[in-house]
């Protein structure tokens, strides 16, 4: 829990810098690029974060990666600051919090939509419009197909879960029948 609070604090600090200099979106892209690279390349992650390696060598590796990615001066300073404070291992969590806060700042909500079959374009647009109206934000849908739902959709926006799946409806009906209630 403490680690998430630390990651949130660093993400918020970077977001404030981005708001101040108008580069929020640039930092979003650069941070995501770096987090994805480090997350997908375990050897690189180890070379930067493993304390068994010499700190100066690990810093040189990080500097080389920053240079090759062509990151901005602010992002380079931020990543080196994380390294110096021994927080570079929190990069993935910092990126996650930064992405959420940057979306919030722009009035964007990300929604997860799980359906039994692929949604039609019309259905996607209707779900997106309904969620936008419900949240008051621009909604970006992240779609997933799960045949186990049998039919219907399950939608998550932040803490809000709207479960309209047939599987859940059948489960609720079964529980009602077990209790002897009228359906």
Radius of gyration over C-alpha positions, nearest whole angstrom: 22 Å
The coarse overall form would be elongated
Arrangement of strands in the largest sheet: 2-1-3-4
Helix content: 55-70%
CATH superfamily of the largest domain: N-terminal domain of the delta subunit of the F1F0-ATP synthase
Q: What is the mean predicted local confidence, pLDDT?
A: 93
- Range of strand content: 5-15%
Topology-level CATH name of the largest domain: Peroxidase, domain 1
Number of domains: 2
Q: What is the name of the CATH class of the largest domain?
A: Mainly Alpha
Distance linking N and C termini: 43 Å
- Total number of beta strands: 4
Instruction: Tell me about the largest β-sheet.
Output: 4 strands, mixed
Secondary structure class reads alpha+beta
